[in-house]
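Reopening: structure tokens for the NAP complex, inputs below.
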Amino acid sequence: MNGKRGFYIGRFQPYHNGHQSVLEHIANKVDEIIIGIGSAQLSHSVENPFTAGERVMMITRALESLGCRYYVIPIEDVQRNALWVAHVRSMAPPFDTCYSSNPLVVRLFSEARVNVQSPAMSERDTLSGTEIRRRMLAGESWEELVPPAVVQVLNEIDGVGRLRQIARTD
Ligand code: NAP
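Re-run output (same inputs, fresh job):
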């Protein structure tokens, strides 16, 4: 196929409604979406509680009705920012445009002459991974901030229990 492919990268700790609405927007612009799971090597920490595989499950299940073909590719960090775009390209299907609002990601792709678009994420006060992890730790409600499929995955893996346990001091 010769269609347009877009690349969207995030840590997705966890995947939430803000990511979902950005991806629904991108789905109207391209024929296929590549979703890169950044910092794939990190898990079991307060900032990065979930494994790459668990994040693959959240995204794959949440996007089942997207109506656009998508690929979910875990991407580990590398020590050298200057080599990161080549590293991403070595792991992902070929793409025309990168969608990101992260200044470093925008800069690195622009320097590599890749077309970059910065989709706005709405309701950033509540729709953020940091806020969702804070609510999980505080015992506040977070379920309405993520797609129902993500609630299901997090229940299956005892995601909140893990986060609370690793946040404890001994
Ligand atoms: P990040 O550093 O994980 O998060 C940056 C912030 O941007 C987060 O608060 C995130 O929100 C937010 N964000 C994500 N999409 C957004 C949007 N459309 N509008 C507004 N804010 C948005 O960065 P990331 O962009 O999610 O992921 C980039 C990944 O690339 C990371 O895993 C990073 O390590 C990797 N990377 C690696 C290298 C290297 O290995 N040398 C170089 C560059 C980038 P949420 O917390 O709500 O998601």
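The radius of gyration is 16 Å. Residues 17-27 form the longest helix (11 residues). Marking as resolved unless the reporter disagrees.
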